[in-house]
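Hey team,

Filing this mostly as a record. A colleague (T.K.) asked me to run one chain through the structure pipeline before their review meeting, and I want the input and output archived in the tracker in case anyone asks later how it was produced. No errors, nothing strange. Just documentation.

Input sequence:
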Amino acid sequence: MKLSVIIPVYNEKNTIIEIIRRVEAVGLAWEIIVVDDYSTDGTRDILGGLNNPSIKILFHDHNQGKGSAVRTGIAAAMGEVILIQDADLEYNPHDYPTLLKPIEDGIADVVYGSRFLGGPRRATMFWHMIANKLLTFATNLLYNTILSDMETGYKVFRSEVLDGMKLRAKRFNFEPEFTAKILKKKLRIFEVPITFNPRDYSEGKKIKLIDAFEAVWTLLKYRFTD
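Output structure:
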């Protein structure tokens, strides 16, 4: 399978080179697409200085949000399978074989890397975990499913699942919008355990409480509309 890895990035000058190195080291990416969402900390300069023909680098001309960066990457992707990779080192590309296996085996259209299925993880951010579990519970209740981690950043899917799907998310509401729409399409979703090394807000974590309220609204909206 031709795998397109999309890396949305905003102000990650300390991690962007390392995450690209880790993705390349796995040796499974057919193409790597980095979308810079108008970083102001020097990340754009670092990306502009890269001389690697195997990496496609796209620049937003103003800050639009993670969801917009992901959508830009999706529009440029040419692979049969798309994998979303955050740039902050919370998720480790060594999990790619595990994430891809259900699709390779023909039993899944979409795979979520779950932080709550027993994989290794750093012990921190209790209230962040509670918020994630509440949002996942709301998803399960509204869409009659049994996900353990709706908000995971590791989402892998066949490119064809996007056929006829209009994604509108601009910020962190990409996760609930994408989840709602694939559940309404009755696609086959598998979850697999992943390694998770969360950073806290002092280390640069960006998602905020307001994003949780936006996620709830997104789940409710797409339960009853397209």
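Quick notes for T.K.: The first helix runs from residue 16 to 26. The chain has a mean pLDDT of 94.
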